[in-house]
Amino acid sequence: xxxxxxxxxxxxxxxxxxxxxxxxxxxxxxxxxxxxxxxxxxxxxxxxxxxxxxxxxxxxxxxxxxxxxxxxxxxxxxxxxxxxxxxxxxxxxxxxxxxxxxxxxxxxxxxxxxxxxxxxxxxxxxxxxxxxxxxxxxxxxxxxxxxxxxxxxxxxxxxxxxxxxxxxxxxxxxxxxxxxxxxxxxxxxxxxxxxxxxxxxxxxxxxxxxxxxxxxxxxxxxxxxxxxxxxxxxxxxxxxxxxxxxxxxxxxxxxxxxxxxxxxxxxxxxxxxxxxxxxxxxxxxxxxxxxxxxxxxxxxxxxxxxxxxxxxxxxxxxxxxxxxxxxxxxxxxxxxxxxxxxxxxxxxxxxxxxxxxxxxxxxxxxxxxxxxxxxxxxxx
Length: 380
Fold this sequence. Notes:
By secondary structure, the chain is mainly α. Helices cover 68% and strands 0% of the residues. It has helices at 20-30, 38-64, 86-97, 100-104, 113-146, 155-178, 189-218, 229-250, 277-283, 285-309, 315-337, 342-378.
């Protein structure tokens, strides 16, 4: 008997139709916004973070070349362009000549207009980059917002980062103002530390948020990575080291000693507490230099622990963290031994910014690891 022939001309079964409403409902259930672009936002935030690192570097050069007080006014729009004529340069130079820094220091070396142009460039470039990063952040944020491309729960955080950037700029101007009054030949080291640490906080938050965006792209249903207790302790220890570094910079305390590991041939420098304990700890350049040197090893120990916590779950973050603090320690020692050579000291500050970025990356990875382990523990 022959098998019955099968018909091959029958139409294929139609695929089930899913309308837009059903798609939206499915996306809501899975936690996905079908038009969200977390990877694009992550890349944008990483670009902004990179520019912030460059700004920190240029800010360090501005401080090391004593250029920060060369521009005595803050003009948001007209300050974008430098002086374009000899007459305009003379006007700016005259403003600088009225500052305590010029009258009590720069004038003694016979500063010329050419010398003034050099220091003016670094302060102008620093401010130009600050304006640029504001545009590079604000314009894409507006575009992502209008396109509804921001994942749920992140709009407030992105606005907060914008506000933090604006606040950091305000702190920068308050810092400059502190060096334009009375007989101050330098800016307040307290305001300098506030300006620098706010920039580094912004950098860390940018990196953390970028990592969150990449996590959302991989796991739409995952909640935010928590800040673990271990990471918080590491961040606090690193904060102290960065604060000490900012005070050392603001007080020119890097020049307190040019030998290492001793300080001027002594294990512990001579320090007088005649002006009070608090004043000495916050103002004495020899003590602050000493504290910055040796608190660094406590920071290194804490960072090693953090790097080991994420070594298995995120090896690149562990490598980045080890590399950053290793290079920073070497550059710190080199800065002392080269008597605060400009480019060595600038590289030390650059590596400090990279260390903050690597620490934020590792802290986020630590939180992600803990969250994942907790999810596995409660899964049936």
